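Task card 7
Instruction: Convert sequence to structure tokens.
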Amino acid sequence: MEILTSISNPTVQAARRLKDKRERDAQGAFVLEGANILRDLPDRIKVRSVFVQADKAQAYADILAKPCMPRPIAVSDKVMRALSDTVTPCGILAVADKPVCDGAIDGTLVVLDHISDPGNLGTILRTCVACGVTHVIGVESADAYAPKVVRASMGAILRLHMHETDADGARELLSGYRVCGMDMHGADLYAAAPMPERKAIVVGSEARGVTPQMRELVTDWIALPMIGDIESLNAAVSLSVALYQMTFGMRG
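Output:
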């Protein structure tokens, strides 16, 4: 087996550049790192290349044998460290096409208004999948295909249609939807009536809340009740609690 040992190899360099959003947009690709993510890869994801640390190829034989996987590129430990976005690489990663948002938007929508923290974004995406949400709108939020977000989402981003846009784009996508916003001065979520099927829930950043542009689209404001002396919860926690209640609790 030939092993790539040079970081300057063109194929390695192209993959390394995908750590930058501009390159992800330009190449229409992103990096998937982690054995669990690659084992559970949905059929709709098209893999361009897969890199495996030479001394770990046998351990990942099941992944490399998947029909969606092209012929693996064996690399040295040094090259894998250069490709990886983690401190301790697991030894396998792939480059895949960014999914195209196709099909009609329906069901519950989640709107992320300037959510910039990758960990929060990843957690929210996992909750969306758990609650059956298939379309998420990111309004000037962190890039959902950034390595940290992909890992934090535990691959949930691969099971969603992600619409990354601005406030005007969100307005078009939300046409015909009843839009509910999260705000500490909103009505008690647990006292609210069931929402229609075509509903959207908007969550803003912890620093700014829902922005003025998005507030114009909101028809209903909700809040999570607090017993203890605390002003608010983490954005991902708040959205998760609200989405679970709206999905499973408001069955009328």
